[in-house]
Model the fold of this input.
Amino acid sequence: MKLTLRKKLTGSFLIISLLFAGASGVFFYYLKSMESSYNDLLGRRSEILANMKEIQLQGAMQSSSMREYLLQQSLDSQSKIGQSGANINILVQETLALVKVDEDKENLKKISKLNTEYMDEVKKVTATASVDLVKARDEANNKVYPLSREIRTLSGKLAERQQKLMEKGNQEAMALVEEIIFIVSIIGVAVVVLAIAAGTYISRMISRPVSRMTVMLKDIAEGDLTMDPIQVKNKDEIGDLADGINSMGTNLAKLIRQVRTSAEHVASSAEELTASAGQTAQATEQIASAVEEVAGGSQHQVRSVEQIAESIDALKNGTLQIFESMNKMAEASGSSLEAAAGGNEAITRTVSQMDVISKSITETAFAVKDLGEKSQEINKIVDVITDISGQTNLLALNAAIEAARAGEQGKGFAVVANEVRKLAEQSAQSANQIGEIIFMIQELTDNAVKAMNKGTLEVENGTHLVRESGQAFTVLKESVVLVSKQVDEVAAATEAINSNTIHVADSIQYISQMAETAASTTQEVSASTEEQLASMEEIMSSSTALADMAEELNSSIRQFRV
Done:
């Protein structure tokens, strides 16, 4: 059976109480013995002594009344003699009920017998006194007075014996009192010694483990978790408390190690996030630069198309002039040849620029796609940070509970645990903000990719049309050469040129629209990349703040030694 601290304390006080009860019982027993002795001494023996003194007095009164009667022959004296004899008999009977020794009882019976003889002789003397007073006096001296003296003598012996017994009883009572004082003193000293021993044992049993636990709790409060477990032999509440404090210290050290590991992981993740955000920002800047180049190329394309349109208008005017004046055909053919050559050159430049635009848009699409993949990696890191923050928050909550159980000694650690929990919540909030920003970036990235794909398609279409225009200019150039060589076929060639010119004009108009659309799209992409760059700067700022919080968490954890 487990002896709890309550049972030990109750048992100790119960033993001490039983010892006090035993001492009180012994003291009560001796008090009763002393009371019985004093009652016998002051009650029975004192009454026997008083009765004997009274018998002596009544005997003396008998002798005195007898002499008075012999002198005066008064009836009053005779009555006093009878009364004294009756009193002696009453005192003898009362004393017989008190004495316990047979010798005393025999002496009392002898006194009673002598008193009877005395009364008989008194009757004889009183009878003689009425006849012969002198003879009555002689009979009184010879028979009555000796009986009275013998009665007084016996009663005196009994009184002296009772006096000696009373003195002996008094001495025995004093010895009993001294014995009681000695025994009670011994028992009292023994009880006090046992009480002091029990108190010392219990106080050591409680104070030593409590002192060890106090030192351990102070070390825990100061952040030292490297202490050895408390070794307590108590199998009671003190032992349970020591086991609980040992478990708390072990769990707290484990918690601090976990929090430290999590803080280092958070710091590492924050550094990786910062690096990834920096790379993403750099990629975004490259995308912005490429988009700016695309935008510049689109503007150049628009200007080139405008030049081509102007050239086509000039070509149309030339064909009209051919129709108006055949005599200027050679000059017009030469001008048309030059214009066709310029148009062909412009078309070549346009095709090259469209290839550059297509390549830039393709690179931009790949960069934006890579940005999306980087955002996915950042999102995974954010998820890891969120999980770590949740675990850190849970660990901080468990630490606060263990600190609350520790009571007053655990308040300092409870404050640290609360700060850890706050840092974990701030980390979780920052991670959520980063997640939202990453989501926005992914949406913008998807939109940019779609816009790039659309721009690529439009550039390909424009490139195809420009190439058709180039082919048309080639045909035009050949036609002009053919016009120069074959004047006879001028009309037919001019009509073909006019038709081709109209077709080219329509194509150039379409190319112009596509170029304007491409320019608008590149401007939108440029705006998106700028927004994305701003978002990445926010991500870098949040990751820096997360790194700072992780460093604060590490600083808070460093005060613990595990």
The chain has two domains: 5-214, 239-558. The mean pLDDT is 73.
